[in-house]
Amino acid sequence: MYYCCGVTDKGMMSHNEDALLINGSVIDSGSSEQTLKEPFLAAVSDGVSGERSGELASKMCLELLRDKGFSDGDDLEEKLLSVHHGLAEYSESDPETHNMQATVCGIAVDGKNSIYTFNVGDSRLYRYRGGRIKQISRDQSLVQLLIDEGAITTEERRTHVHRNIIFPVLGNVKSEPKIDIAELPEGMEYGDLLLLCTDGLSDYVSVLDMEEILEMPKSLKTRLHLLVDKALASGSKDNITAIAVVCCEKDG
To answer: Which domain holds residue 131?
Structure first.
């Protein structure tokens, strides 16, 4: 059994281009809490800044993924490519939505409790274990490439002039996305917490601040709202979305 809690907030913006998926629920406002048995999906999505209909792209992305479902043996890459093609085809049918795109970052838990991670874009997955947080996903962005090459430091990421340039994501009508899929390293132990979030949170809340908030003896929903508040207090002008997933049962 797993407990999942998610929050999404428009922040300082007039509308929300983020959305979240927990099992069968897709929302772009407020929060959702569910206790789930495997298999299930959980994911966050962010409409790409500068493209048309970002709010529609993120919500439709997750609705398409939800409708495809997930069970043991499913080909996640095939499902996500199908979501990509669905977004692209829809956007080409209407000039108002042309080339709408969205990131996606999530987990798929199968019936044997194996956890698979998937990522397209710069939304993120972290694992919180034993009071320390570690980024699991890898940003598909120009600044990440520059960091990997040693051209800039991690600290320079937030203010870099090209920080908003990401590689092709779901819905791009000119290029297929590169979908990163992997089994979660070391799995998930009792007491672990998986945190999925959009860049409105990760760009403004440091790892140390995440650790400090997540270790608080407060409800999971309260801690997520504190992360949102911290992002806003640190200057985030983006939408902010986060999902936390915890395992409710010990092995045996």
So the answer is: 2-135+168-247
